[in-house]
Amino acid sequence: MRFSTPVSAAIPLFAVLLLAHPVRAAITIMGVAPGSENAAIGTATIEDFEDVNLIPGLTIRMGGVPAPYPNRMWTGILPRVFKPSLAPSCCTIGGPYPNNPWDGTGALTNGGLGGTGLSGLSPGDGQFFDFQFADTVVFVMSTGKAMFGVGLSNFQSAASGDPPRTDHELIVNGVSKGVLETLLPGWVSGQYIKNRYLIITATAPNAINTVAIQNVTLADGLVFDKLALSDFTVPAVRSTWGRLKAMYR
Ligand SMILES: [Ca+2]
Ligand SMILES: [Ca+2]
Hints:
The chain has helices spanning 7-20, 38-41, 180-183, 237-247; strands spanning 27-32, 45-47, 58-63, 72-75, 108-109, 136-145, 147-153, 168-172, 175-179, 194-202, 208-215, 223-230. It is of the alpha+beta class. A hairpin with a 2-residue loop joins strand 8 (168-172) and strand 9. The protein binds calcium ion (2 copies). Residues 154, 156, 191, 220-222 line the site of one calcium ion (CA).
């Protein structure tokens, strides 16, 4: 087959078209300081972790649990409510953490996933702040989302952790985006604080299916709260059809 337009002429035209229609980022990542998140999540469905029931369509996986203990995956119901204000203060655990929740008093943690921990009190099946800690926390959505948000607390970064622990990798839809420490402007590290509110948005036809946060080098007890999910709005097909009908009335 021969093309009517010579290749040498088509390339500049293609370049011009690219410049005229810049490719929009399919997935964007941002972070805001505590108290500034509501503008971004105002209409979202919120999981506040104040009871054991998870919002529909959300599955949470605790991965990379040190052997011989199993990974855990929760859909619909959590093993218990975790309250950071009741985290153990003994045995270098560092609790309590009354400032970790983003709403109410309950939250999600990657701890308590094997044995009785340093405190001797861990139930071993999750939602308790003690060893063992999962290396990776994965949020799995049953349908692709337009927006995913979550409050991050108790993250102790490698360079400034109070005391330092590890940086934290963000993986969206199975693709690494780098570490939160450099991804989120104004990142603040520490175990007794809220670090940042993470907001991920997708531009159709892309969608957010999984969000994973992973301790890179050392175990770090992490706290998550005020998780927000937004669906895509109904496609504009109907309104476009309505406008077409109006044109031909
Ligand atoms: Ca909460
Ligand atoms: Ca921590």
